[in-house]
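Incident review: delayed structure delivery

Summary: a single-chain prediction request sat in the queue longer than the usual turnaround. Root cause was a stuck worker, restarted by the on-call engineer. No data loss occurred. The affected request and its eventual output are reproduced below so the record is complete for anyone auditing the incident later.

Affected input:
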Amino acid sequence: MTSNALHAPGLASSAIEWRIDAAPVAYPQAVAVMESRVAAIRAGRAGELVWLLEHPPLYTAGTSARDDDLLDARFPVFRTGRGGQFTYHGPGQRVGYVMLDLRRRGGDVRRFVWQLEEWLIRTLARFDVVGERRAGRVGIWVARGGGREDKIAAIGVRVRRWVSYHGVALNVAPDLSHFAGIVPCGIRDHGVTSLADLGRAVTMAEVDAALRTAFVEVFGAYSPSQP
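Output delivered after worker restart:
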């Protein structure tokens, strides 16, 4: 695995670690890393982590996935313990896996999901894109006019003994035709979009910088258990 762990100079060990992988990470490998890190956070042997990466093309099925929402298994399909239904991951999509100790952050899972949404909304705003929540629909949505709404970011999390993992997926410039193999998140009446599809020609590095800035605004830079 090739990755860069980012720490601001002079920050104490309580700072949240940021890891960015340059090459696509196989999904089973990513799950194994998350499982290990969650256990270490819970045991007090490791700090909180935000991991930004891409996957090779694949579909994942959350705990609420329905078999008839898999329309064409053109890519490997992985059953996973995160919440939600079917989603696609692939090149051009920035996945953010968020491993935080929620017990030390108030123990409020609903608020945590709201914060993930807010993180994405603020990130999109930096590229002049209005991302919005929709009641009854998970993820972040963009109004396209004429009543059309497309999903630009997905959210699917799991919490084990108050430590979160899995996270978000933001469509930067993926091949949107790859979503046709599934009913994304079980929603048949709306489409998907990306920053590129909306005319925002941004690099992944620019997206990563926006994600980090927005994350600190929403979650803070430090574990609240430390000074």
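Verification: The longest strand covers residues 148-160.
Action items: add queue-age alerting; document worker restart procedure.
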